[in-house]
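Anyone up for a design puzzle?
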């Protein structure tokens, strides 16, 4: 079977008017466009970068949802209430309650909606801050981001939804308090205006914008980032120029496990720990519950004298997380035929690493981690050679803050009123995650609130007629 290759719509086909203009081609943008199209609207997707997919393509672990049929097939009994509670606690109880309520109660519907489009997420893993397996991923165990973008693009292509790349939106057009379209810059440098009764901001966060990071969190200005180059917060400028309120801008997530010894920083997905990997310091010792929140794991690494650590895993973990094959192919993985061999290669004490693994394996067997209280990601001990290590340190990963929206994805102005015709979803929007995003919730957010944006645009446009 030939490999699917999506072709962006030729610029010559760009029209002057659409029902809704969606800015950004990550999962949020693709989902909102598909949903709007299925409701009978004429959407267009505009992407400023030559590459489609945005930060979604960097996601690796999965998509969180509770009370799904997939969970029941895996004998996991879950509840919306538990999902809400664990996300609320994980976010420092600073999450917007209305957004979180909608999010937690619509994840299962989002999984079903994807399945109805032939996008099956029928395997489960777990991420930090969760107590049960609710992180859905494809049975191929492929990284969720690339898989999801590819599958959504198949729907976009089949439905002939126009998607233009290298088209930069420079301003939102307004008439009184209503959004009426956008100003764009074409690859030639020419300016053009497009009319639409609604605009969806799906532009992602600002994790690749050092100036904005330094503005809101000066202590992070020297950190590297896991974000793709287009994650510069353009949507924040568009929204504020249109009168939008911002929330939680200082809430910037640092991901604890990022390999930074190469020219490009590579995020090592949480599924590696979710499937059983542990973290050790330069003395070959564990120092944290590896599946507590990202914020807590990051803090523990930052408190080490070296401010870096090693992920330790065995071949069984590698088989459960195929992304490790990619990490290995680009030189990020150290391999040892034995634990002693691995310890020598990463320059940690052989006896200490052996003792650490023995203690951990006993904890897995007895389901009692007396050292750090870990209770998840303990399905099997680390006993299957070869053994592997990945050198990691924290890096800027996700921006929890952004444009203020309500649970209907309507953008809220500084006056407290809704900006008519303007919607936002995904990482561009603040409020859902509080002060710490749980792994697997960002992909869930793109589908849950991407669908919501498409639905609410339809509702808005039908009331205008």
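Challenge accepted. My sequence:
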């Amino acid at each position: 079977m030939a490999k699917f290759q999506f072709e962006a719509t030729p610029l010559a086909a760009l029209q002057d008017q659409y029902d809704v203009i969606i800015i950004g081609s990550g999962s949020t943008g693709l989902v909102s466009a598909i949903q709007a199209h299925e409701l009978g609207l004429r959407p267009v997707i505009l992407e400023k970068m030559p590459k489609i997919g945005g930060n979604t393509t960097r996601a690796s672990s999965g998509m969180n949802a509770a009370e799904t049929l997939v969970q029941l097939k895996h004998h996991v009994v879950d509840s919306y209430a538990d999902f809400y509670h664990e996300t609320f606690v994980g976010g420092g109880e600073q999450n917007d309650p209305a957004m979180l309520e909608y999010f937690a109660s619509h994840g299962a519907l989002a999984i079903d909606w994807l399945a109805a489009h032939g996008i099956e997420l029928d395997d489960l893993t777990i991420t930090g801050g969760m107590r049960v397996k609710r992180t859905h991923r494809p049975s191929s165990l492929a990284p969720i981001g690339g898989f999801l973008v590819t599958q959504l693009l198949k729907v976009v292509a089949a439905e002939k939804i126009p998607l233009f790349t290298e088209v930069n939106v420079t301003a939102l057009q307004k008439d009184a308090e209503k959004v009426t379209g956008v100003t764009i810059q074409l690859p030639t440098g020419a300016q053009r205006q497009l009319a639409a009764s609604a605009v969806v901001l799906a532009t992602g966060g600002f994790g690749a914008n050092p100036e904005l990071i330094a503005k809101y969190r000066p202590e992070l200005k020297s950190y590297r980032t896991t974000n793709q180059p287009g994650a510069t917060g353009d949507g924040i400028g568009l929204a504020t120029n249109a009168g939008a309120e911002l929330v939680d801008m200082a809430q910037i997530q640092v991901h604890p496990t990022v390999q930074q010894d190469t020219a490009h920083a590579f995020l090592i997905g949480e599924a590696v720990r979710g499937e059983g990997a542990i973290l050790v310091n330069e003395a070959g010792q564990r120092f944290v519950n590896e599946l507590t929140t990202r914020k807590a794991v990051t803090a523990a690494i930052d408190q080490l004298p070296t401010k870096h650590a090693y992920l330790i895993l065995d071949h069984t973990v590698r088989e459960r997380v195929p992304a490790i094959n990619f990490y290995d192919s680009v030189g990020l993985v150290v391999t040892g035929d034995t634990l002693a061999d691995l310890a020598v290669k990463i320059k940690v004490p052989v006896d200490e690493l052996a003792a650490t693994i023995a203690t951990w394996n006993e904890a897995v067997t007895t389901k009692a981690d007396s050292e750090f209280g870990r209770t998840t990601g303990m399905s099997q001990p680390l006993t299957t050679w070869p053994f592997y290590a990945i050198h990691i340190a924290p890096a800027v990963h996700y921006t929890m803050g952004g444009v203020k929206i309500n649970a209907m994805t309507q953008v809220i102005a500084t006056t407290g009123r809704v900006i008519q015709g303007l919607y936002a979803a995904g990482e561009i929007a603040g409020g859902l995650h509080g002060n710490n995003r749980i792994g697997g919730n960002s992909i869930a957010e793109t589908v849950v609130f991407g669908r919501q944006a498409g639905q609410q645009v339809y509702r808005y446009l039908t009331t205008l007629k």
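A detail worth pointing out: The radius of gyration is 22 Å.
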